[in-house]
Design brief:
heterodimer, A: 14 helices, globular, B: alpha+beta, six-stranded mixed β-sheet, 21 strands, disordered C terminus
Chain lengths: 281, 368
């Protein structure tokens, strides 16, 4: 049978290959090269520009020796991690409940999670400052209060990415059967979420978390208006005073981003098949 | 006193759809009861109400004399096996089985011992470290069964657990399920639309249709003495012959111009009325047996089914009739277009309700 299948398929494939004219092939390559150039050239330009500093690599060494670089990066990562934790605590039970019990509300919840695309960060931060700079909740009056506002704003900004990631992860599972199986074994809602749903959402949560972290680390408007020592305002600050260092910082931040992506793909490796539920093999 | 008791159960969904109505059932401790019926008859909804996943609109569920109608599923102490297995993909086989024990905070060494026992019981000893995706469908369902049994539930519910498996594994696994259930004396409710499964597994069968119980009885009673035309038609293969009442008091009818006798008087009918006579293929014998009902017809088809041979004949008025004979290498079978006579005892004739006569097909074939 396979032989027959091969005999039937092979001439079609050959015919298709023959049908591609040199012009089509050239166009395909040109498009691919244009895409590569679009992504690589700005990075390459930034890297080359940063290497023009004298002495050689001084932009990188100066950046890496600047304590503010580390403190802003550390602060951004801490805020990012808190944002991720709050987002997960808020969105996983919500998405789970909507899928399990309130499927009719899904379009509404999806719309709400997409609102950050419609409302610009500047509007969001002005709203927050106006509301929380006076009693009964004068949060902008203290660093801790401002941090709380910052995290809340970033949680909102992360909605579209985190909710979508969680929802996609839930879609790949038979959550109804898993939930009912857990319940019949005596598990309550917290146990179900903690021991059954969350572990099976690992990959989805990792990608949602990564996107959230990337947004938090790169976000400027809200951090700047709330006067928090985040990485993006730091980058803006050194851009105004120095020539090559901002380019070096950009290259370093790209390297950190890629390292994070590599870590995610390593952590997520092999879990795809484990998420498969039911069905005879 | 019944161990599992369902009283006046009714379920109406918010859209107004009545899924289950007036369902009353008492199940004894250690009994194996199957809910049998076509899709949408309410059998799974009833099972889900026992499990606590659905709340009845009216009525109550009691286990061991305790009303559990208002209890959430995780506090009912009822194990359930699902059609889709519902094994936790992030856990190994052993962790899946131990899940309920961990939730109940049982000591680790006790849980480990119990897992080993159950792995042996389901013949998967040594496979505790595997993940569900590394097992075949049959193995996964055995793990699901072990997981449900691990917590030693008061009642075990199985929702079409064999539907996703191929025929051979299905037969092997159903024998295994029954053997384990007997071994543990577990009160079990089994949902299926497969009559062969229900007939072979159950102590009692509840046949359901359109949310109502049609009949409750042993497999023998359900098959041989169906209480309604629905049960007669749904369970097994059935010939339905249109007949005219000749003498209701003596149970004499005429079909295709030939006289037939039923075992008893035909209640509520008078001479000239039309009735439907149901006849199981295995009760019809090829040949002219003295003292039996006889029908003549032409052979249209001979189907070899292994242990039995099924013959399809047609009466002069066009009514088809199926009958079976055991396979025998020395058997001389009639050929297509041969004229034959078949015989059957008066006791084989079931008079169906008049309503069924207008809507029923001539042959209802649901299995061999």
């Amino acid at each position: 049978m396979s032989g027959a299948g091969r005999a039937a398929v092979t001439p079609t494939v050959v015919a298709r290959r023959r049908a591609r004219s040199p012009r089509q092939v050239a166009l395909k390559w040109a498009f691919l090269l244009a895409c590569i150039a679009y992504f690589v050239l700005p990075l390459l330009g930034t890297l080359l520009f940063s290497l023009r500093s004298q002495p050689f690599l001084s932009a990188f060494t100066d950046t890496l020796n600047d304590p503010q670089f580390y403190s802003s990066l550390e602060y951004s990562f801490v805020i990012g991690i808190v944002t991720i934790v709050v987002s997960i605590v808020l969105l996983v039970p919500t998405a789970f409940w909507v899928r399990l019990r309130l499927p009719r509300l899904r379009p509404i919840v999806e719309f709400v999670t997409l609102l950050p695309f419609v409302v610009p960060p500047i509007v969001l931060v002005f709203g927050l400052i106006t509301t929380f700079s006076r009693p009964p909740l004068p949060l902008t009056g203290s660093n801790l209060g401002s941090d709380v506002l910052l995290v809340c704003a970033y949680v909102v900004l992360s909605f579209p990415y985190m909710y979508r990631a969680v929802d996609t992860g839930l879609r790949s599972m038979d959550i109804r059967s898993l939930t009912e199986a857990s319940q019949s074994l005596g598990a309550g809602w917290l146990t179900i979420l903690w021991r059954v749903i969350l572990p099976n959402l690992r990959v989805a949560l990792l990608s949602g978390s990564f996107l959230t972290l990337a947004i938090v680390v790169g976000e400027f408007t809200i951090a700047n208006f709330l006067a928090r020592p985040m990485f993006a305002p730091y980058l803006q600050l050194i851009s105004g005073n120095l020539a090559y260092e901002p380019a070096a910082v950009a290259v370093i931040s790209f390297a950190i981003t890629w390292a994070a992506m590599g870590a995610i793909s390593l952590l997520g490796r092999g879990s795809r098949s484990k998420i498969q539920v039911g069905g005879a093999r | 006193m019944a161990f599992l008791s369902l009283s006046g159960i009714r379920k109406q969904f918010p859209g107004g759809q009545l899924a289950v109505d007036d369902f009353n059932l008492d199940v004894e401790k250690g009994e194996f009861v199957s809910f049998l019926g076509p899709s949408g008859c309410g059998k799974t909804t009833t099972l889900r109400m026992i499990a606590g996943f659905e709340q009845p609109t009216a009525g109550s569920v009691a286990v061991g004399g305790r009303d559990i109608t208002g209890l959430p599923p995780n506090r009912r102490d009822i194990g359930m096996v699902f059609q889709s297995y519902a094994l936790f993909p992030n856990m190994t086989v052993a962790d899946n089985i131990a899940f309920g024990l961990k939730v109940r905070k049982k000591p680790a060494d006790m849980a480990k011992r119990r897992v080993e026992e159950l792995l042996d019981l389901i013949h998967l000893g040594g496979k505790g470290g595997r993940y569900p995706y590394e097992l075949s469908g049959g193995m996964q369902q055995r793990v699901a069964l072990a997981r449900a049994l691990a917590i030693e539930p008061q009642v075990l519910l199985l929702d079409e657990p064999l539907s996703a498996l191929d025929a051979k594994i299905r037969i092997a696994l159903r024998t295994e399920i029954r053997s384990i259930q007997r071994q543990l004396g577990m009160t079990t409710v089994y949902v299926t639309h497969d009559q062969e499964e229900a007939l072979s597994l159950s102590d009692r069968i509840v046949v359901m249709s359109e949310g109502r119980m049609e009949q409750v009885g042993t497999p023998f009673e359900i098959y041989n003495f169906p209480a309604t035309s629905f049960v007669a038609k749904f369970v097994g293969t059935l010939n339905v012959i249109e007949a005219k009442v000749v003498d209701a008091a003596t149970g004499l009818v005429a079909a295709d111009g030939q006289d037939l006798r039923t075992a008893a008087a035909i209640d509520g009918a008078s001479s000239g009325d039309r009735v439907s006579i149901a006849l199981r293929p295995e009760l019809v014998t090829l040949g002219d047996l003295p003292g039996s009902n006889r029908l003549r017809g032409t052979i249209r088809d001979v189907m070899f089914l292994g242990s039995i041979v099924r013959l399809r004949m047609r009466l002069a008025d066009g009514t088809p009739l199926l009958f079976d004979t055991f396979n025998n290498p020395h058997l001389s079978l009639p050929a297509r277009d041969d004229e034959v006579t078949v015989s059957f005892p008066a006791e084989a004739c079931l008079v169906l309700e008049r309503e069924a006569a207008t809507r029923g097909p001539d042959i209802v074939e649901l299995g061999v």
